[in-house]
C-alpha cells in the first residue's frame, strides 16, 4: 500500500450572494474545510474569506486505497462536498458542485495519480 503525501490546494470562494455587484457592503464569511475519510475527520482550513478571495490548504497524507471527501462549510453550514479517490483527477478552474457552486479549484500541486486513476488513464490510452 502506497502512502500519498499531502498536496497544496488553492480554492476560489465564489460566495453565496454576490452583493458586491449591487454595491452593498458584505461581511467576510467564515470558511471551514474538513478532510473526511472512512475513519478520520480532520480540520484542514479555517478562517474568514471575502467574496472572490482565494485560500490555500494542505491535504492530509493518506494511503492509496482510501477515498476521502473535502467538506466545505460556510458560516457553520455545509456548502459543498468534494468526494475523491485522489486530488490528481481534478483540473484547475473546475467548480466544486454544491447547491450554489460557491467554490472553484484554482490550483492543485504536488499530487500523484492513485491506482484507480492510473488504471483509468491506461484504459483510455488503449481505446
Automatic annotation (TrEMBL):
<protein>
    <recommendedName>
        <fullName>DUF4590 domain-containing protein</fullName>
    </recommendedName>
</protein>
<dbReference type="InterPro" id="IPR027962">
    <property type="entry name" value="ERICH3"/>
</dbReference>
<feature type="domain" description="DUF4590">
    <location>
        <begin position="24"/>
        <end position="121"/>
    </location>
</feature>
<dbReference type="InterPro" id="IPR048257">
    <property type="entry name" value="DUF4590"/>
</dbReference>
<dbReference type="Pfam" id="PF15257">
    <property type="entry name" value="DUF4590"/>
</dbReference>
